[in-house]
From TrEMBL:
Reaction catalysed by this enzyme: UMP + diphosphate = 5-phospho-alpha-D-ribose 1-diphosphate + uracil
Source domain of life: Bacteria
Residues that coordinate or bind uracil: I192, G197, D198, A199
The entry's keywords: Allosteric enzyme, Glycosyltransferase, GTP-binding, Magnesium, Nucleotide-binding, Transferase
Protein name as annotated: Uracil phosphoribosyltransferase
One Pfam family cited in the UniProt record for this chain: UPRTase
Enzyme Commission number(s): 2.4.2.9
Cofactor annotation: Mg(2+)
Function: Catalyzes the conversion of uracil and 5-phospho-alpha-D-ribose 1-diphosphate (PRPP) to UMP and diphosphate.
Protein's pathway: Pyrimidine metabolism; UMP biosynthesis via salvage pathway; UMP from uracil: step 1/1
Organism: Peptoniphilus olsenii
InterPro entries: PRTase-like (IPR029057), PRTase_dom (IPR000836), Upp_B (IPR034332), UPRT (IPR005765), UPRTase/APRTase (IPR050054)
UniProt keyword Glycosyltransferase, yes or no: yes
């Protein structure tokens, strides 16, 4: 299921990302800020357990996150831009990496790297990537996590095309997708319209 995270701060920051004049420096900063806001929402239902503690004043009970917690998996390159923002909110998360680029002719993902934490089966694994276009990259990344034993997977994308959401929902109906905005469509080159351009190039100043 796909869920749009509605928040005035996210809307404001997304507009900054979309503007073509926004520098790479500001783009990087704002991607991380939106990632942190989305991390808060995506982890809203983490299970907690009651623990007994002592404050400097008196014994009391508090809540702590239960179990092995969270793993974050950026899809390289552009997903890297969201990692720091996520770690601001969930600093103890493990970080895996999946390297993938989209072939410009076929628009199919080509995987060139995968390094995941050993215990993915015991963690909530959150894939981060600013763009969900055709959905090919995210479907392949979810396949890779499942091959490695992950059972609890979520995806966080800043911007999605309806076509991509549909493709991922069909391939992996068990994976919840969180997005900041859904745009109109893809163009003939597989770019989201109106979108924000090439997220990797804008983050890292390449072209
Ligand atoms: C972008 C983006 C996604 C992918 C989305 O990566 O970061 O990973 O495209 O497209 P899809 O939904 O059609 O698969 P890109 O291939 O440009 O690689 P990069 O991050 O290295 O620039
Ligand atoms: N990848 C991007 O970086 N931008 C798009 O619009 C589509 C795929």
């Amino acid at each position: 299921m796909a869920q749009i995270i509605n928040h005035p701060l996210i809307d404001h920051k997304m507009t900054i990302l979309r503007k073509k004049e926004t520098s790479s420096m500001e783009f990087r900063q704002v991607v991380n800020e939106i990632a942190a806001l989305m991390a808060y929402e995506v982890t809203r239902d983490l299970e907690t357990e009651e623990v007994s503690i002592e404050t400097p004043i008196a014994p009391t009970k508090g809540k702590m996150i239960l179990g092995k917690k969270v793993g974050i998996v950026p899809i390289l390159r552009a997903g890297l831009g969201m990692v720091e923002g996520f770690l601001t909110i969930v600093p103890s998360a493990r970080v895996g990496h999946i390297g993938m680029y989209r072939d410009p002719e076929t628009l199919k993902p080509v995987t060139y790297y995968s390094k995941l934490p050993k215990d993915v089966s015991q963690r909530l694994m959150i894939i981060v990537d600013p763009m969900l276009a055709t959905g090919g990259s995210l479907i392949e990344a979810i396949d890779e996590l499942k091959r490695n034993g992950a059972t609890q997977i979520r995806a966080v994308n800043l911007l999605a095309a309806p076509e991509g959401i549909k493709a991922v929902e069909e391939a992996h109906p068990d994976v919840d997708i969180y997005v900041a905005a859904v745009d109109e469509r893809l163009n003939e080159h597989g770019y989201i319209v109106p979108g924000l351009g090439d997220a990797g190039d804008r983050l890292f100043g390449t072209k």
